[in-house]
Amino acid sequence: MNSEAVFNPTGKYHWMFSIPSRGPIYFETFCTGVQAICVFAGVIIFTPHSKDRITNRDIVWRKAKSLIVSSLMFYIVNIIRMLIQLQLYNIGYRWEDIHYSISAASSFIAAIIILLLHKWIPEFIISIIYTGTLISEPMKAKRKEKIITIANESQKIDLNLIRKYLGANNKDFSRKFPEMAQDFGFFMEDGQLLVPSEKKSEFLNALEKKFRKVKSNQMKTKTETIKETQNND
Asked: For residue 72, what are the domain limits?
């Protein structure tokens, strides 16, 4: 391309590629993807981890490996992206057409790095799940209050409301809940759970028991995921 990098002390951008056939293209440090590197470095470094020695095995090395690999991937991919864009610009493409499209395409590297984090730092994914749990707790408390109110005022409770409170997906709820309802003498009709007046108290206790069991199984699965990933390493 017979281009050269030129320093320009004035203006917003202090560096440019001078391309004789097309004119200058200005660039800055952010073009290397350093801002994405900083974001993922912060995520990797400050991702909380367990205090259990077995679960916490090699956490420093796992974080260091993730930090080095993700930083190199971002930097190298962005340098290659810049070279491709300059070459396309040199042969005649409009800069506006190639700059935003290729820059957006290179962002898929973030998805690959997240997959690496899932393997090397499963605590990252667990932290996201845990954060979501903290956010969802107030919503579940409101659903519980609503269920209790409905149970005290009526003999019909919407099954979808119960499913959301238990945090179950449609498949598991459809498969397991009818057995629970039958065990306690409840009946289902047109998406509603029919609760006899004399069994309201029993229903609420069963709901609490079921809810605690679901939460216990979820935490057990998360812990097993971390240990299984580390054993595979």
From this structure: 4-120
